[in-house]
């Protein structure tokens, strides 16, 4: 099996799977249970002057019967005394010396307060420090969390204060609640940060109770904006991590966070350059036990791909993200429907008509369908035909058996056809098709050499205006 | 008013629901499984063309009242149909999930969920905005075809009177559906909903002498009279201890029959025979046989009905024909198919203990009664109509339901009634009111 051992900003890790600073890392007992389950590291729930939390403090977005597509919280940093947290860190490190414990810190924005906190955390035995410049709710009102992370100058200044005394690697955790996440990443790097972690939660209101009109979570009839996380935020996090890792002025070892719940998510973040990944919502949903498959699945995939270590594939996808102007304008694909797999739901047809470019038809024609065929029965005509047809209950003996569809699963009349001369290759049909591999996109050789927008405008002498 | 009824507690206890209501959470999960097919095959397969994806997606969004209204737009007896429809051969049978080797969406149970919620909250069937018309239509028969026709006519602003000869309205929905599929009260709840649209229901039998007066009084007449008497056994000794299947079902549903003999033989193997056999079991019979003169591959009962009977402990005696009944014993002859393909009676005899014999061998058409209306054309005892409009060969008469199709499902009767109502309004020159 491939090795998942890695070194992150100088810290030895048995695997890249860390728990993010959050309720799952609230105390020593939890962290030790997590390590027993297989987690390689834990970022301790943010330590600072203890706060008082409200209840309730979580709310979620369900989608199509699935629970917790997205989770939102208005919980603050640790509500336990600093001494207890530090004593427990020491105990965990004593019992689990090979596992990584990072102390997440958030204190008043004063140099001496930060100096003292850093020293105490390191004295307790933490392997590194994560500066929480991301928390978007509550703490920001007190001039901490994202109040720091949204102002590059503050972020740089506090990073510098910490670096003045820190003996262990310093991670700066970035907030996504900013126009360009790279601006603060650059400031952190300027301030001497050893590594970054991103993203923290995204400002959100998950929903409003339509009976009481109170947004969720409900705290005695009122609510507040909270931090959004979970599977729903992964695409946003992936983009932000990629943009930081592709920026020479920002790039540092990156501990990626945001909707990671499986080894696949982890592999994707590693492919855009992450060194380790941090997980929270998935653990809040299913418990520490999910790490077993994260380890197993990632190793298995690495074996299949021939990667012996994480470094073998780290960042491989970075060069493949580019600006739009560098994309090949002459690359052409068209949709193809595998008629033997089609179940006749016709979702591609209606999606193409109403949501895209009207290239998928239900009016089957005889003969070749690769020519330009102008017989388009509009969707409503199909529906009207159905509604005016007369149906009766099929009764054995009284009615002939249903016509066989031959080697097709659906009646041929329900299997749509793609007019390839009209298909723009947008891909929408293959996204809505509920059957795997039924709609695939086929490359159509256009006979033209690759050409990008930048190349074309340069050739034509057009000056780009924006 | 034809809906006053008190259920018998003993019967209710003996016939608990076969398919209980879905819980809100289960309905939500199931509704979300629906792919929302375009021009969905389930909608095409439903005789009343309920827009299935539309009502299911409304359940998924929590718009249950809207869901029910969408259903009612297509099928005013949607509550009954949700319970009694053979969904396995209709909407659910055509669900595309079959093509991906998954269980079809539970369309029938979702429809019931929406309709139960609708009636449970005391909501009213929405009536379209239209002028009240000085037109009067009589619907003969109080079953699904007539009720559907009446409701659709009311939607067009026509004044409707339904004539029903039994104590309770609803026809087979009230008297003929196995109690574990639909309770009498659930049928009556729908009858009341249709009454509240302004349909007048009179518990009155129409005799041969009434037609002339009706033709004078009404602008059109819809015949939704169903079928007549059940076929008799016509075997020696075959009167004592014989109870036809529909009488048995109507009897226990109304609490008039609370027990049955120890041994029961049901003759015939259609869906009614199954219902009668299962009912006999539940009414306390030890041994219930279904006697059928052909083999299982030729029975007209649906496969899932047959499976259900097996689960209830009903036994099947194939290739037997009753030839005499004597003192609780049914004498049966073996049957076979000869070389010419005809069914013949063989030499072998079997004696079957049967304190009660229940023929379920079909209903005869009401041909004699109907033939008193001059100018209506018949074929094989059925009223001949134009399928799309329900028009008969007599300009004033329209027809639908079992008297036209020879005996199909409730939903077919509803579809017939609805089409006939549109045929009637078109014939009476009523402009169609645009609706969903």
UniProtKB/TrEMBL annotation, chain A:
GO terms for cellular component: cytoplasm. It catalyses: 5,6-dihydrothymine + NAD(+) = thymine + NADH + H(+); 5,6-dihydrouracil + NAD(+) = uracil + NADH + H(+). Residues 333-362, 414-444 form the 4Fe-4S ferredoxin-type domain. Pfam families: DHO_dh, Fer4. Gene3D superfamilies: 3.30.70.20, Aldolase class I. The keyword Lipid metabolism does not apply. Its EC number is 1.3.1.1. Keywords: Iron, Iron-sulfur, Metal-binding, Oxidoreductase. PROSITE patterns: 4FE4S_FER_1, 4FE4S_FER_2. GO terms for molecular function: dihydropyrimidine dehydrogenase (NAD+) activity; iron-sulfur cluster binding; metal ion binding. The keyword Oxidoreductase applies. InterPro entries: 4Fe4S_Fe-S-bd, 4Fe4S_Fe_S_CS, Aldolase_TIM, Dihydroorotate_DH_cat. It comes from the Bacteria. PANTHER family: DIHYDROPYRIMIDINE DEHYDROGENASE [NADP(+)]. Involved in pyrimidine base degradation. Catalyzes physiologically the reduction of uracil to 5,6-dihydrouracil (DHU) by using NADH as a specific cosubstrate. It also catalyzes the reverse reaction and the reduction of thymine to 5,6-dihydrothymine (DHT). Heterotetramer of 2 PreA and 2 PreT subunits. Belongs to the dihydropyrimidine dehydrogenase family. This is dihydrouracil dehydrogenase (NAD(+)). It comes from Terriglobus albidus.
């Amino acid at each position: 099996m491939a090795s998942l051992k890695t070194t992150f900003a100088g810290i030895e890790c048995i695997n890249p799977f860390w728990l993010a600073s959050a309720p799952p890392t609230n105390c020593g007992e939890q962290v030790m249970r997590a390590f027993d389950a297989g987690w390689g590291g834990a970022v301790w729930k943010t330590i600072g002057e203890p706060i008082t939390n409200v209840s309730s403090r979580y709310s979620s977005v369900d989608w199509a019967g699935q629970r917790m597509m997205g989770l939102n919280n208005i919980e603050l940093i640790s509500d336990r005394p600093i001494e207890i947290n530090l004593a427990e860190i020491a105990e965990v490190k004593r019992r689990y010396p090979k596992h990584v414990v990072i102390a997440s810190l958030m204190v008043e924005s004063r140099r001496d307060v930060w100096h003292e906190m850093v020293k105490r955390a390191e004295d307790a035995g933490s392997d590194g420090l994560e500066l929480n410049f991301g928390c978007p709710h509550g703490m920001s009102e007190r001039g901490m969390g994202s109040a720091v992370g949204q102002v590059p100058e503050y972020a740089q200044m506090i990073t510098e204060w910490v670096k003045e005394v820190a003996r262990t690697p310093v991670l700066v955790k970035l907030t996504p609640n900013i126009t360009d996440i790279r601006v603060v990443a650059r400031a952190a790097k300027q301030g001497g940060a050893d590594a970054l972690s991103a993203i923290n939660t995204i400002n959100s209101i998950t929903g409003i109770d339509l009976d009481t009109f109170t947004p969720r979570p409900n705290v005695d009839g009122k609510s507040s904006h909270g931090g959004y996380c979970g599977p729903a935020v992964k695409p946003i996090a992936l983009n932000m991590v990629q943009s930081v890792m592709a920026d020479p002025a920002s790039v540092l070892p990156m501990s990626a966070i945001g909707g990671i719940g499986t080894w696949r998510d982890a592999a994707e973040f590693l492919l855009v350059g992450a060194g380790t990944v941090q997980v929270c919502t998935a653990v809040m949903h299913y418990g520490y036990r999910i790490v077993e498959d994260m380890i197993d699945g990632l190793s298995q995939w690495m074996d299949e791909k021939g990667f012996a270590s994480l470094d073998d594939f780290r960042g491989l996808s970075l060069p493949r993200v580019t600006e739009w102007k560098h994309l090949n304008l002459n690359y052409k694909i068209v949709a193809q429907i595998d008629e033997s797999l089609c179940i006749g739901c016709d979702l591609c047809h209606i999606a193409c008509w109403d949501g895209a470019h009207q290239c998928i038809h239900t009016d089957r024609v005889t003969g070749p369908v690769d020519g330009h065929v102008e017989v388009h029965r509009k969707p409503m005509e199909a529906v009207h035909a159905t509604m005016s047809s007369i149906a009766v209950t099929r009764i054995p003996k009284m009615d002939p058996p249903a016509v066989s569809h031959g080697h097709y699963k659906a009646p041929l009349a329900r299997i749509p056809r793609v007019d390839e001369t009209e298909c723009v290759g947008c891909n929408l049909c293959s996204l809505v098709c509920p059957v795997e591999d039924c709609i695939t996109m086929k490359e159509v050789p256009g006979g033209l050499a690759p050409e990008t927008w930048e190349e074309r405008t340069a050739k034509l002498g057009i000056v780009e205006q924006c | 008013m034809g809906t006053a009824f008190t259920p018998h507690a003993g019967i209710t206890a003996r016939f608990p629901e076969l398919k209980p209501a879905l819980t809100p959470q289960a309905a939500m999960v199931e509704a979300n499984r629906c792919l929302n097919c375009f021009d969905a095959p389930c909608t095409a397969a439903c005789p009343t063309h309920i827009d299935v994806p539309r009502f299911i997606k409304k359940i998924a969004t929590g718009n249950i009242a809207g869901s029910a209204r969408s259903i009612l737009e297509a099928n005013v007896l949607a509550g009954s149909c949700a319970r009694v429809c053979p969904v396995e051969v209709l909407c659910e049978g055509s669900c595309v999930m079959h093509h991906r080797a998954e269980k079809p969406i539970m369309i029938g149970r979702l429809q019931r969920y929406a309709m139960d919620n609708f009636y449970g909250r005391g909501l009213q069937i929405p009536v379209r905005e239209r002028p009240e018309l000085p037109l009067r239509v009589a619907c003969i028969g109080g079953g699904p075809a007539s009720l559907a026709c009446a409701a659709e006519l009311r939607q067009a602003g026509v004044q409707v009177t339904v004539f029903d000869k039994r104590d309770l309205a609803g026809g087979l929905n009230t008297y003929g559906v196995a109690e574990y599929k639909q309770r009498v009260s659930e049928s009556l709840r729908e009858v009341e909903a249709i009454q509240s649209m302004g349909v007048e229901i009179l518990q009155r039998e129409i005799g041969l002498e009434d037609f002339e007066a009706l033709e004078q009084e009404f602008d059109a007449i819809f015949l939704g009279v169903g079928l007549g008497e059940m076929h008799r056994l016509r075997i020696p000794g075959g009167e004592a201890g014989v109870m036809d299947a529909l009488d048995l079902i109507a009897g226990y549903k109304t609490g008039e029959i609370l027990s049955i003999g120890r041994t029961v033989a049901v003759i015939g193997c259609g869906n009614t025979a199954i219902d009668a056999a299962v009912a006999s079991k539940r009414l306390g019979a030890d041994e219930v046989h279904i006697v059928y003169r052909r083999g299982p591959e030729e029975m007209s009962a649906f496969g899932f009905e047959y499976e259900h009977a097996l689960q209830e402990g009903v036994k099947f005696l194939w290739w037997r024909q009753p030839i005499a009944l004597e003192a609780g014993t049914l004498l049966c002859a073996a049957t076979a198919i000869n070389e010419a393909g005809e069914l013949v009676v063989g030499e072998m005899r079997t004696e079957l203990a049967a304190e009660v014999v229940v023929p379920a061998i079909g209903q005869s058409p009401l041909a004699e009664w109907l033939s008193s209306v001059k100018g209506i054309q018949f074929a094989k005892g059925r009223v001949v109509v134009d399928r799309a409009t329900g028009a008969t060969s007599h300009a004033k008469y329209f027809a639908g339901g079992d008297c036209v199709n020879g005996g199909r499902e409730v939903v077919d009767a509803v579809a017939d009634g609805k089409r006939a109502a549109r045929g009637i309004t078109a014939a009476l020159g009523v402009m169609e009111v645009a609706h969903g």
